[in-house]
Design brief:
Largest sheet: 9 strands, mixed
Cofactor: pyridoxal 5'-phosphate
Catalytic activity: L-valine + 2-oxoglutarate = 3-methyl-2-oxobutanoate + L-glutamate; L-isoleucine + 2-oxoglutarate = (S)-3-methyl-2-oxopentanoate + L-glutamate; L-leucine + 2-oxoglutarate = 4-methyl-2-oxopentanoate + L-glutamate
GO biological process, one term: L-leucine biosynthetic process
Radius of gyration: 19 Å
Bound molecules: 4'-deoxy-4'-aminopyridoxal-5'-phosphate
Number of domains: 2
Function: Acts on leucine, isoleucine and valine.
Protein name: Branched-chain-amino-acid aminotransferase
Number of strands: 16
Length: 298
């Protein structure tokens, strides 16, 4: 359950009880998947305080997503961050998932709107240890074509594609799906970006046909600090089948290793990969402010 009768949310400038909040059933978002959202995490930091990870980046992306879809957006990152800390505090949550959603008013046409609405919901989520490795399959679904969608926006409607891919993978006994782009190159998971390792180098799909993940950007920062070479390029499935290792990264998934792709195991044990070094650095980074190469205090 994501909420109970005592859970507070932020709704259009007010803090209200989740159980009592209402949305319009004629909202264009509900009918057509025309809305934008974010997935953010907060962690209990090493100082004991609650720390929202990369909060400005997430609220900036929310605004960019709204702009990409022509949704009116009247909020500042500052006020939304303040509101988020307030509801986390009222809900007594430190390790939490934070879900802002910008939604449209009642509108059964395809015409633009004069205003948008916003809700921020939070629920408890413990940091993930990432110990279980994922068995991944190449999805029969492709990611949405960037010529048909604003793929760089985190739009609600795009997630029909994620749900289909994820459900297909689970129905076939896998843990997760990996989707190609419309050109047949590896794109991303249903809710996470992907990296693979060959020798001492990491590879990840370049931006363009994927969501520009904030965790992906964080992994690139970690690699720079740890002197790990990364190449952003088009990757084929057969290249990935021969890789030493691979991992997904995303706000919810954090950094999580893969055991196999299409039942072909990766060559290296996870404990011997660059991925585990990045996973450890990431775990530190989310609860501390900085890291160094020696102590990995990112
Ligand atoms: N790709 C997709 C399709 C996603 O939904 C997500 C999760 N937001 C990501 C990648 C990873 O993005 P982030 O690291 O910003 O959570």
């Amino acid at each position: 359950m994501y909420y109970n009768t005592n859970t507070f949310i932020y709704l259009n400038g007010e803090i209200v009880k989740a159980a009592e909040a209402k949305i319009d059933l004629y909202s264009q978002t509900l009918h057509y998947g025309y809305g934008v959202f974010e997935g953010i995490r907060s962690y209990k930091s090493s100082s004991g305080k609650t720390k929202i990870f990369k909060e400005e980046e997430h609220f900036d992306r929310l605004k960019n997503s709204a702009n990409a879809l022509n949704l009116p957006y009247q909020w500042t990152a500052r006020e939304l961050i303040k509101a988020t800390y307030e509801i986390l505090d009222k809900n007594n949550q430190q390790d939490a998932y934070i879900r802002p959603l910008v939604y449209a008013p009642a509108n059964m046409s395809f015409n633009p709107n004069k205003e948008s609405f916003i809700v921020i919901e939070t629920w408890e989520m413990q940091p993930f240890l990432g110990e279980k490795l994922l068995r991944v399959m190449t999805s029969s679904f492709e990611r949405p074509n960037p010529k048909g969608f604003k793929i760089e926006a985190k739009a609600t409607g795009h997630y029909v594609n994620s749900i289909l891919a994820s459900q297909e993978a689970k129905a076939k006994g896998f843990d997760e799906a990996l989707l190609n782009d419309m050109n047949g190159f590896i794109a991303e998971g249903p809710g996470a970006n992907v990296f693979m390792q060959k020798d001492r180098v990491l590879y990840t799909p370049q931006l363009g046909n994927i969501l520009p993940g904030i965790t992906r950007a964080t992994v690139l920062e970690i690699c720079e600090t740890l002197d790990i070479p990364v190449v952003e390029k088009q990757i084929t499935t057969s290249e990935m089948h021969g890789a030493d290792a691979a991992f997904f990264c995303g706000t919810a998934a954090e950094v999580i290793g893969m055991e196999s792709l299409d039942n072909i195991p990766f060559k290296k044990q996870w404990k011997d990969t660059l991925g585990i070094q990045i996973q450890n650095a990431y775990k530190k980074l989310v609860v501390e402010k900085a890291f160094t190469t020696t102590s990995i205090t990112i």
